[in-house]
């Protein structure tokens, strides 16, 4: 079976159908750009399998079981630019298989089974930019097979067998690809014997300008022989990667050679066997005094002696990263107070065992031309308050250390500063020239003050402890163009989500240049883990103040309307009187039970209860009472001044008076209506008439002066109705008519007795 390697597939819209029997039959109905069939054990492919893939750009058939390469596979792939046929068991390419691939720019072929390369095999391939050939077991090579491929930007060759067993074959291959503009990489070599150096002695190889050795085993003697063979060759770049070196480091035999054209010398992942037997590099003055760039990465360097540093006369770029340097050995390497490495502009000592930031700043301060300094991945735990630095320093990297605070130790001349992955909780330093600042991986809660960084263009704050930031904070950075703040613990409030979504969409005042899906909500709980770009908040949750204000306004408005309605309908008065009535009624029942009166009935003690105003008391006391109580047939009247028990609740007195009276006489006048006491008494009397089933005959209205029903408060609807429907007595101003008034009043009071 086979799989598609996702990393190498570009599909615009994709619809693919596969039919796999004994071989591969691929029918594609869309524009497929990249297809990876690597490592699927394919033994054969139908000739027309790729015919429909006319837009294919990248095809990977490596690590399968293809014993032959068929030109028919590629006849319809006119757009193909990258083809990988590595590690299949074919011994040769056969007929011109690539003649239809006019746009091919990168070709990888060969493997353990490749034995022969003929000139016609690569017919039609003449504009490659990259060529990789694995021919460790190559036995036959027709000279000129690669000669027509020009220009070649980069060539990678694995020729382990030919270098050891057939140097002439290796030399022929090198001769066809060693153009001045071509970077040649040789892999899997063992340069132990002098015989393995012979391919470099041929005249054609003297065109090499850029040479890299990768996965190489060699001795110091082989290096000497190589330098002798390359004497006078204008080699500008030489690199060694994944090297195992043996010997004692004796370079004297090559001391006479000339390599002044070397501009860059690089070594990476070098292991020196018996390192304690290895001498210093002092005898390599003939080589070290020329390069302007030197890289010695992960080479186990624990010290570069001062005398060796003095040999690097032209060095401007020095990379000693991932070694074993300490504060003490770095002091030895950067010796003589800046008189060594005087032209140094870039220094990288990251990934060593340095502890003192103060010492490092003092050591580099004398290198007046130093502009770039990388001292990251060391063990600094603190930053002093003041530090000397070169005046030309523009780029400083102190990332992945253990710093807890940033101080004024940092030079004001910096344009690029990287303090990522420390333990900083804040950053508030004035750096007027700074253009790029990386504070990722710290513990910052807030953005740095923009006013202190007037020239800042790029700010990176990924993986901190930010919960949110505001537009005003970003606007304080007057020149900020690129901002990255993913992987923080964002509180997704409405304003922040709207602001950040506009930035993620590129429509805001800032431009977020990192992955928008990495901006994730940490709170509130219902949004935790959701990308901010896909969060949708409701109107109510986003405008709570407005919603609450409107709701409160509606409640207040409704409450006001209800209050007005209740006031107009006298609901509060009814509630108050209901409560008073219930309370008074309960007291009345208790008194009746104490008196032995059954049920809720009360003893009738008065013929009438008289309700009147204090201003009308003289009329009641001087005229009404004498006439009714001192008549031939006297009537008993209940007056509040005389018959109400002192100390009792007024409602109880009124209740008792009304219960013990057959009638209620209301002495109505303007003073009665205006009197608060009378109104209170009238309230309760009205409630008695309205809610206790008392009829209109129980109330007798006496008007001392002309008074219409409109003068009675509207809440006394029962009394107003009585005035409209019941005959009431008016006190006559004419003395002659008064006897009739008294007779009518007595008749009304004695009506029940007569019946």
Automatic annotation (TrEMBL):
* Membrane topology listed for this record: Single-pass type I membrane protein
Name the keywords, alphabetized.
Answer: Disulfide bond, Glycoprotein, Immunity, Inflammatory response, Innate immunity, Leucine-rich repeat, Membrane, NAD, Receptor, Repeat, Signal, Transmembrane, Transmembrane helix
Q: Give the UniProt record's GO annotations in the biological process aspect.
A: inflammatory response; innate immune response; toll-like receptor signaling pathway
GO CC terms in record:
plasma membrane; receptor complex
The answer to keyword Ligase applying to this record is no
Ranges for the TIR domain? 604-749
What is this protein's name? Toll-like receptor 2
Species, as recorded: Salarias fasciatus (Jewelled blenny)
């Amino acid at each position: 079976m086979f799989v598609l390697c996702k990393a190498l597939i570009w599909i615009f819209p994709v619809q693919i159908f596969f039919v796999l029997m004994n071989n591969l039959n691929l029918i594609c109905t869309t524009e497929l750009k990249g297809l990876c069939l690597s490592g699927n054990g394919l033994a054969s492919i139908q000739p027309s399998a790729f015919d429909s893939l006319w837009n294919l750009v990248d095809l990977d058939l490596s690590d399968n079981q293809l014993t032959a390469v068929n030109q028919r596979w590629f006849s319809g792939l006119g757009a193909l630019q990258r083809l990988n046929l590595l590690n299949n068991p074919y011994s040769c390419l056969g007929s011109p298989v690539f003649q239809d691939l006019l746009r091919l720019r990168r070709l990888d072929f060969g493997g353990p089974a490749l034995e022969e390369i003929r000139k016609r095999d690569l017919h039609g391939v003449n504009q490659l930019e990259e060529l990789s050939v694995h021919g460790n077991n190559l036995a036959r090579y027709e000279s000129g097979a690669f000669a027509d491929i020009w220009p070649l930007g980069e060539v990678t060759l694995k020729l382990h067998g030919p270098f050891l067993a057939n140097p002439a074959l290796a030399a022929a291959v090198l001769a066809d690809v060693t153009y001045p503009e071509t970077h040649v990489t040789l892999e899997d070599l063992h340069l132990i014997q002098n015989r393995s150096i012979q391919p470099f002695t041929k005249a054609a190889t003297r065109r090499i300008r850029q040479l890299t050795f990768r996965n190489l085993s060699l001795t110091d003697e082989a290096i000497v022989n190589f330098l002798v063979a390359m004497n006078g060759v204008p080699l500008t770049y030489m690199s060694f990667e994944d090297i195992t070196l043996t010997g004692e480091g004796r370079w004297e035999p090559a001391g006479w050679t000339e390599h002044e054209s070397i501009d860059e010398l690089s070594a990476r992942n070098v292991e020196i066997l018996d390192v304690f037997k290895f001498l210093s590099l002092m005898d390599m003055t003939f080589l070290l005094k020329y390069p302007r760039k030197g890289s010695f990465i992960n080479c186990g360097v624990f010290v570069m002696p001062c005398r060796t540093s003095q040999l690097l006369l032209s060095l401007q770029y020095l990379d000693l990263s991932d070694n074993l340097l300490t504060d003490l050995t770095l002091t030895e390497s950067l010796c003589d107070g800046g008189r060594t490495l005087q032209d140094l502009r870039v220094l990288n000592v990251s990934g060593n065992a340095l502890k003192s930031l103060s010492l490092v700043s003092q050591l580099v301060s004398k290198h007046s031309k130093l502009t770039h300094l990388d001292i990251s991945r060391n063990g600094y735990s603190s930053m002093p308050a003041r530090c000397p630095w070169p005046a030309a320093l523009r780029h400083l990297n102190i990332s992945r250390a253990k710093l807890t605070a940033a101080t004024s130790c940092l030079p004001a001349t910096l344009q690029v500063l990287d303090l990522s992955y420390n333990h900083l909780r804040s950053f508030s330093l004035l750096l007027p020239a700074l253009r790029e600042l990386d504070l990722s991986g710290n513990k910052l809660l807030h953005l740095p003050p923009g006013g202190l960084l007037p020239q800042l263009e790029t700010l990176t704050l990924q993986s901190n402890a930010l919960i949110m930031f505001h537009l005003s904070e970003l606007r304080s950075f007057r020149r900020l163009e690129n901002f990255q703040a993913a992987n923080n613990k964002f509180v997704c409030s409405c304003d922040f989500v709207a602001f950040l979504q506009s930035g993620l969409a590129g429509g805001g005042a800032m431009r977020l240049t990192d992955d928008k899906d990495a901006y994730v909500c940490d709170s509130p709980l219902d949004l935790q883990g959701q990308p901010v770009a896909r969060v949708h908040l409701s109107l109510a949750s986003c405008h709570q103040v407005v919603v609450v204000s409107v709701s409160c306004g509606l409640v207040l408005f409704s409450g006001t309307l209800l209050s007005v309605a209740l006031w107009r309908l006298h609901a509060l008065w009814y509630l108050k009187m209901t409560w008073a009535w219930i309370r008074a009624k309960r007291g009345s029942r208790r008194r009746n039970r104490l008196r032995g009166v059954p049920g809720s009935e009360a003893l009738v003690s008065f013929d009438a209860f008289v309700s009147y105003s204090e201003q009308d008391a003289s009329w009641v006391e001087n005229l009404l009472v004498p006439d009714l109580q001192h008549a031939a047939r006297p009537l008993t009247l209940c007056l509040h001044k005389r018959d109400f028990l002192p100390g009792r609740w007024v409602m109880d007195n009124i209740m008792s008076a009304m219960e013990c009276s057959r009638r209620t006489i209301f002495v109505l006048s303007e003073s009665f209506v205006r009197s608060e006491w009378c109104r209170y008494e009238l309230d309760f009397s009205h409630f008695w008439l309205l809610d206790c089933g008392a009829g209109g005959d129980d109330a007798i209205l006496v008007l001392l002066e002309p008074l219409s029903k409109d003068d009675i408060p509207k809440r006394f609807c029962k009394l107003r109705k009585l005035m409209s429907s019941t005959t009431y007595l008016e006190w006559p101003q004419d003395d002659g008519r008064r006897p009739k008034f008294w007779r009518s009043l007595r008749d009304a009071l004695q009506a029940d007795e007569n019946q």
